[in-house]
Amino acid sequence: MIIIRYSYDDMPLPLDLDLLRTFVTVVESGSFSNAAPLVGRSQSAVSMQMQRLEQSVGRELLVRGPQAARPNAAGEELLAYARKLLRLSDEAKAAVMRPEEVGSVRLGVPEDYVAQFLPPVLARFAAEHPLVTVELICESSRQLIPAIQSGRIDLAIVTRLPEQTFDAQRREPLVWVATQSHVVWETDPLPIALFEAGCGPAHSHVLEALNGADRAYRVAYSSASLAGLITVVEAGLAVAGLPRCSVPPSLRIVGEREGLPFIRELEMSVLCSSVSTSLAAQCLNDFLKRALSRNC
Fold it and tell me: Is this prediction's pTM over 0.85?
């Protein structure tokens, strides 16, 4: 008779989802110190978790630097699986605990809030409500408000115009931006890249600031496109007034020290269509209002 005995001590342990979540957070935030508050742990605890994960897979996963951590080849491979496992875990939990939170929500947002402000907000929402699909529609605030009223979209983040009476959930500074390597603000008259007049109050706020300061200027570029304005500024051809939450890392914020006047802030609001009664739409509505009020 042949007896086969299995040693469970030799069997590989399953991957710990808590360790994987911390690993993904470290990679996405760029360092242990950045990840620590996001996962609710100290920096040393995050470091210990990464050591435990590396021990469990028998491979180093991160290239550690003085101020940053990035995945090596093995880390990149694990990262793809970690994201899949975490997504499936979140979906399974939501399906059991919140089965009614299922559906698609049409969210309208002006382009200048999409690139920098919205991605981390929607990522957090997706983690909390993985069964809700968000369909993004990029239009100006002037187009989004009638779209909300007609029910063409469910929710919208808009910039409030002076004549509109709905409440503002966030006051967003408008700041001057310039390229990292040019001092274009020293040019006279000042070359500016400007949103088109119909795109929202940013256009009038910038001109109001320049006229109030009696600063000579010329419009070097005018467009409805945020990407177009950023390209012109990156080329060193002009400065622009952008919402602070829309400023990309390639540009720097300038202001009074460079002789540029203060620009009046924008007022942001979340609007919900009266015909959108789904729980999914209400969840996103509440989430966006909290995000705006936190000024994140």
Answer: no
